[in-house]
Amino acid sequence: MNSQTLPKRGGLWKNILWLVIFILILIVSGDISGVDIPRFLMNAGQMNIIIEKMARPDWAYVSIIVDPILETLQMAIIGTTIGALVAFPFSLFAARNVVHSKWITGVFRFVLNIIRTIPDLMLAALFVAIVGIGPVAGVISLAVFTFGMVSKLFFESIETIDDGPIEAITASGGSKLDIIRYAVLPQVMSHFLSYLLYAFEINIRASTVLGYIGAGGIGIYLQRSLSQFRYDQTSIIVLVIFAVVLIIDTISNKLRERLI
Question: Do the Cβ atoms of 158 and 95 come closer than 8 Å?
Fold first, then answer.
């Protein structure tokens, strides 16, 4: 056997060293953040009580949460659509193989970086304060969140396309719109639709949490059932959300497989 194919003996000690460093960082982080594992284990009995109550769901509550679930889906659809439509042209200006000015692409990317650093919960709290409690705040929050996420994914996808069609259209005297229409969009349109579906999946989950702080949807009912200790109603909400997310994920995955 060639000596070059044998594993290096120093690799084992290096892995052990990294494991020890990781454990030390974990311990120090837990100490700084005040994580109390023994206390968590001591209160595990309370979790069993909650699980027992959730194991007896109030099935009559299903009829009450149908409209909030539909509102949650509507929020996700509208917010995702608005955010993606704005992200589409914005991504073109951020792609360096479409816009060759570093100043222009730099400004657009800087704006995207700022938007992506704002958590969706903070966006929801901000828009709830601006427009009030209700689905409008949730739709705007999801639109901004979708815009930041899809824009980055899309302009990075644009920058990986084949430059041959762009060079051919440029050499034949085509305009910038011709380049986008005939060279860029045919190569990235399927990716854009895939990102749109991916953002919609995320927004279905996010809209539930946003509703918890007053941005409309099923989250309001989730917050109400938890505050009233009605865990039988909470279990119904969780089951319905799980079923909706599972169905949407299945359909979305099938559509993405056909697109890519």
Answer: yes
Where residue 60 falls (left for φ over 0; alpha for ψ -120 to 50; beta otherwise) is alpha
* Separation CA 217–CA 213 (nearest Å): 10
8 residue type, one letter:
K
Nearest CA to 168 among 158, 156, 183, 181? 183
d(C-alpha 68, C-alpha 135), whole Å: 10
Q: Which H or E run includes 215?
A: none
The type of residue at 213 is: I
Give the tens place of pLDDT for each residue, 187-222: 888 888 888 888 888 888 888 878 777 777 788 888
pTM (2 d.p.): 0.76
Contact between residue 162 and residue 187 where contact means Cβ atoms under 8 Å apart:
yes
Q: How far apart are CA 112 and CA 188, in angstroms?
A: 20
With beta carbons less than 8 A apart as the criterion, state whether 184 and 166 touch: yes
| Nearest to 201, CA basis, from 85, 76, 78, 117 | 76
Pair of tokens at residue 71: 């509102």
Distance in angstroms (rounded) separating the CA atoms of residues 192 and 23: 41
Count of CB atoms within 10 A of residue 247's CB? 10
DSSP 132: -
* Residue 12 buriedness (CB in 10 A; 0-12 / 13-18 / 19+): exposed
Helix (H) / strand (E) element for 97: namely: none
Q: Which residue has the tokens 């989250």?
A: 219
